[in-house]
Amino acid sequence: MRSLRLILSNARYFGPAWVFASLNILFGTWAIYIPTVKENLEIDKSQLGIAIFFLSLGVFVVFPIASKIINKVGVGKSTWYGVILSCLSALLPLLAPSYYMLMVALFLFGASNGFTDISMNTLVTELEKKDKEKFMSASHGFFSLGGVLAGLGSFLIGPLDNPIVHMGIAVALVLTVNLIYYRRYIGIVAAPVEKDPFSLKLFRPLLLLGLISFVAMGSEGAIVDWSGLYLKEISRAPEALWGVGFLAFQVTMTLGRFLGDGISSKIGSIKIVGLGVFVVMIGYGLVLSTDTYLAISGFALSGLGFSVMIPEVFRIGGNFKGIDSSQGVSFIAGTGYTGFLLAPPILGFIADHSSLVTCFIVLFCSAFLILVATFILQRRRSVT
Hints:
- This protein is an all-alpha fold.
- The protein has a single domain, classed as Growth Hormone, Chain: A (Up-down Bundle), CATH 1.20.1250.
- It has helices spanning about 1-10, 10-30, 35-40, 45-75, 75-90, 90-95, 100-130, 135-150, 155-160, 165-180, 200-235, 245-265, 270-285, 290-305, 310-315, 325-355, 355-384.
- The longest helix has about 35 residues, at about 200-235.
- The protein is globular and about 50 Å long.
- The two termini are about 30 Å apart.
């Protein structure tokens, strides 16, 4: 909790942390309207999966150029520009009048979010280096806090009865707070790094971190996108509970990330990721029971387990010797969003041809890949 106190007591750290929250307030508000958009545009699960694929595609397309832009413009300015772009594009998916326009809107929303994501993670990495303070996990906790705020916003669906107004409120909240704090980080630039020539020895551990990011972000995205439909169609939950799985996932993700920096300092980054995947697998087991309340508990446990994974791999990737922090972060983010890119259409296809239960069986099995990666990383560290 020391890192949380650090953020709350110092505007230098609160500003970047609020960018994390901002991104998920916008994305989470979109996510709770996914069933509504599906119904309004009269599309099936496979079509929805393809549309969400375009969101991830937008994110993925940005990654090859993001590092160069960040290094040229400055990581602080890039983060602020990313916030503005994300706010401008957040309304587009809810305004889309057709299925094809939805795909275009989600592509632009994804591209804006992807650039902001890389910028803000690089910004925190640079601040950790400059100030010798750890607050990456707590910053990701603010990302989850943004999801909690978006989840709580689901209770406005009925009273507002207008997705555009709802998203407009979210955009106003995000912009207002960022306008107060952006001057605290806009001047930050990345420190120059003496680059090493490419070698397999340098690339292999980065590839394993990419694998963890691939599975973790793909799985997180699946829970965000499909938890509501799972509770509605498989658990037969009442309408009031459709968004509770997403909310529970975000609450425990937030709690875990606020605690993560302290635990990581004691047991190490690799071990905390291994511990997290065990918790995730227990959570999936509860989700697969199909009982409404056990499934909600399972989403909550999954959030707790996933909470520590992405912050730790970003921290390690951003501190690799011989590469720019923005390049390390871009690689981790790129592999993670590749998982986020592939998961929706694959799971949509599986859901249409089998069931959402089968989707979560696949996610349960994929968690073993993270276990294997952490085992190899820990073994390599022990040898070296």
